[in-house]
Q: What sequence folds into this?
């Protein structure tokens, strides 16, 4: 066993013990459904801010997006990190955090589906939203497992990828089932600190590599880069140093919009606003979360943009997803300090993924246990039964994600590529307009959800028939952005031609903004 493997195992053991202890200590605060799902609406600024940021950025961002876009686009890819911080984080907190906290508290809504039912008096919307969450978020979590498992396999080449995915699944299940949202909020705080330290260390390490030449020589070396003969993805130094992405400008814009505005409609992100305790905490959380996203988002894409220099323009054997793991091994494999940093970076990527996984699993489990099953049964379910069912379903969803990740199921992998755009495309219109306008009707809100599904569904069908499904999957960012735009337009448009039937109830709901 190498020194790198020994240090990584020690770091993993310490990290696992810490996460398990937090889960056990949080058990007392998660005995009620409110406590388990939203922390009793009493989570502070730091925990909520870091929970938002760590849920936003998983290992998929580092291993997949930062590696791919940094390799193909270069410095321009950093704009994705800037967009995520400003649009996906700062603007989201400013526009929606306080309104979401007040309205969901008034409605006593614990989930996105619950919010739709109580805001629009529609059980059908609740069921539809719960089904969408279940279908499209579980494959997303499976992709996170797969990406992280591949990364650990790069450090431990003799260990099968599924072993690492199983360890990650078990660790996530322990503290999530034991402590619920409280445990995830405080583990996210620790995970966020690890992520910041790890990213700063990795930036210093890659900039210090001889091929990069430090901060002063980085841009110049990248400008002088030339692709090797036979490169399957040839590019030029001018492309890699073009601050606006050069020929990839359109692609860059769609990715910024999808990954930034997409957070405005994702239930695992919006749910953080349900739990924060007061307006003062929101003001502090806005600043903390934005700084976190600047460091992590811009840092990840900066690291990705150094990859062609560090790897000499040779794409690793494993393709795009192997870029960042190979960069890590190249930069951090020498010397004791480098090996220690490698262990820290591995924990960084583990933290990034587990925080996303726990949020997605909790959102999916509550959608079924709290929203779907009671609505279908049409009879009241005791809170104790819902609590037990939610904990069991958390285990079930962790297991399902693990199974999907270990199987080469093409439809699951392809479904994941659409999940972000579809879920946000369905929910963004009804969610946002429901917070701001009293004139939005149940029919208008339902139209918004259905329009998101139809835009992506019809586009996928047309492209697949004219080309193939792989081509459709590559265009998922454009479809997702289109779905979000249509949802935002269709909700008020349909509402303008229909009538709000329960104006008194709506007035009472909106009175929450005049209350503390």
A:
């Amino acid at each position: 066993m190498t020194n790198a493997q020994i240090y990584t195992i020690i770091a993993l053991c310490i990290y696992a013990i810490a996460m398990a202890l937090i889960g056990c200590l949080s058990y007392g605060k998660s005995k009620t459904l409110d406590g388990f799902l939203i922390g009793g609406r009493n989570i502070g600024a730091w925990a909520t801010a870091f929970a938002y940021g760590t849920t936003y950025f998983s290992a998929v961002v580092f291993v997949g997006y930062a590696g791919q876009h940094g390799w193909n686009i270069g410095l321009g890819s950093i704009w994705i990190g800037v967009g995520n911080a400003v649009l996906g984080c700062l603007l989201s907190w400013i526009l929606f955090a306080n309104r979401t906290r007040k309205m969901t508290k008034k409605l006593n809504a614990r989930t996105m589906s619950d919010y739709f039912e109580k805001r629009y008096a529609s059980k059908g919307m609740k069921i539809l939203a719960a089904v969408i969450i279940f279908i499209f978020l579980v494959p997303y979590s499976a992709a996170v497992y797969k990406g992280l498992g591949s990364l650990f396999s790069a450090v431990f080449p003799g260990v099968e990828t599924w072993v690492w995915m199983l360890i990650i699944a078990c660790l996530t299940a322990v503290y999530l089932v034991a402590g619920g949202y409280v445990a995830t909020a405080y583990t996210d705080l620790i995970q966020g600190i690890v992520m910041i330290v790890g990213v700063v260390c990795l930036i210093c390490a890659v900039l210090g590599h001889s091929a990069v030449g430090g901060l002063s020589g980085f841009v110049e070396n990248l400008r002088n880069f030339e692709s090797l003969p036979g490169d399957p993805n040839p590019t030029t130094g001018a492309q890699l140093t073009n601050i606006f992405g050069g020929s990839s400008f359109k692609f860059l814009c769609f990715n910024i919009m999808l990954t930034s505005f997409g957070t405005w409609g994702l239930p695992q992100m919006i749910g953080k606003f349900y739990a924060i305790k007061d307006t003062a905490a929101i003001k502090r959380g806005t600043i903390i979360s934005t700084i976190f996203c600047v460091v992590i988002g811009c840092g990840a894409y900066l690291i990705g943009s150094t990859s062609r220099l560090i790897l000499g323009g040779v794409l690793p054997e494993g393709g795009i997803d192997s870029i960042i793991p190979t960069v890590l091994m190249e930069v951090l494999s020498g010397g004791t300090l480098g090996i220690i940093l490698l262990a820290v970076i591995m924990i960084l990527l583990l933290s990034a993924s587990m925080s996303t996984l726990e949020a997605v699993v909790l959102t999916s489990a509550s959608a079924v246990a709290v929203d779907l099953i009671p609505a279908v049964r049409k009879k009241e379910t005791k809170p104790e039964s819902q609590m037990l069912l939610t904990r069991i379903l958390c285990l079930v969803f962790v297991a399902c994600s693990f199974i999907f990740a270990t199987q080469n199921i093409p439809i699951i992998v392809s479904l994941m590529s659409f999940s972000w755009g579809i879920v946000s495309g369905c929910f963004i219109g009804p969610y946002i307009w429901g917070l701001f306008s009293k004139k939005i009707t149940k029919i208008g809100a339902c139209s918004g959800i259905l329009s998101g599904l139809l835009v992506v569904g019809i586009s996928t069908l047309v492209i697949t028939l004219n080309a193939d499904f792989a081509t459709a999957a590559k265009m998922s960012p454009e479809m997702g952005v289109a779905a979000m735009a249509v949802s935002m337009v269709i909700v008020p448009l349909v509402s303008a031609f229909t009538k709000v039937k329960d104006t008194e109830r709506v007035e009472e709901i909106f009175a929450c903004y005049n209350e503390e």
